Amino acid sequence: MTTQPSSATELDVALLKSEIKKKYASVSAEPEQHFVFPTGSSWAEDLGYPEELANVPESAVQSFAGVANPFSLGRLERGARVLDLGSGAGTDSLVAAQMVGPEGHVTGIDMTPEMLAKARAAAAEMGATNVEFVEAEAERLPFADASFDVVISNGVIDLVPDKDAVFSELFRVLAPGGRIQIADVTIQKPVSEEGKRNIDLWTG
Fold this sequence. Notes:
CATH architecture: 3-Layer(aba) Sandwich
Strand order of the largest sheet: 3-2-1-4-5
Largest sheet: 5 strands, parallel
Mean pLDDT: 86
Strand content: 15-25%
Number of strands: 5
CATH class: Alpha Beta
Radius of gyration: 17 Å
Structural class: alpha/beta
Shape: globular
CATH superfamily: Vaccinia Virus protein VP39
């Protein structure tokens, strides 16, 4: 007979999501603060972002908190349907929107309302009509099967405990022949059970 771990030994996923929202609400509202992770336009430039970055409103780029450059894996084709998983303030989505052109479409999802508001305002400022931002979580995407040609994501999947659920959803919403361009954090050694329950280690 197997026993389930007690609640005292499990990660409190609801608390984790609440803390992540607080952290990224701070990145949205006060991007000039010092965070454990780098942020802002100089960081995006250091990562070798494509020339389209120059057209993205500074209001979005100042809250950029990606970990690398997903576009280094390839430019997006014109006309492509793109999902930006964890779109934050919208920098990657707005770069992608320029690449796919008016015949393409970009959908950014994020679970932090403050980031979504900032992304929508930046899209409006830029006049980008081929991009939308949706409040949703990575483990439960509100889209039909085969809705996208490309998924991009930047420093988000590492924050989600149930990665199997995330990748299951990504493969579900990707059209046959679609691709994933992910920039993220990986670790080389197993994390202890105590470490897995440490909310501060998850949120940075």
